[in-house]
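fyi for ur records
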Amino acid sequence: MVGRGSMAGRTNIQKAAMLFGVVFLLVTVLGFIPGVTSDYDMLTEFGGVGALLLGIIGLNILENIVHLLYAIGGFAAASSWAASRTYFLAGGAVYLVVWIYGLIIDEESSANILGVNDAANWLHFVLGVAMIGIGLALARSGERPSLAT
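which gave:
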């Protein structure tokens, strides 16, 4: 028997939201592991590039909290087609705003409250475009949730 929490009966956009939730949760956890995150002592710094996930991607505790919120959002959004579509479109738009913010600020200034660097900025761009693309493509695929219970 298939349980209520299973992926059976979910649309592709709902499955994608769940997958993004899992990935964001994994990134959150990795962001708190010394060794995976270099300059770990900089994780609590605000203003300037913080710690480095995988030695490359700038982040701090606030960015990790944002990743956790995206994970929770993905899990919650997976409950419905409309919520999943909104998660991808709105979440992608937010990432594009963060990308622009990262391009405008001086990475070493106190305005860099997320601890971003060039690698993080371009990752935010890719995530923003990918999320919006997924939201548009899967929402327009003609697939709609089943009304059967």
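The mean pLDDT is 90. thats all i got for now
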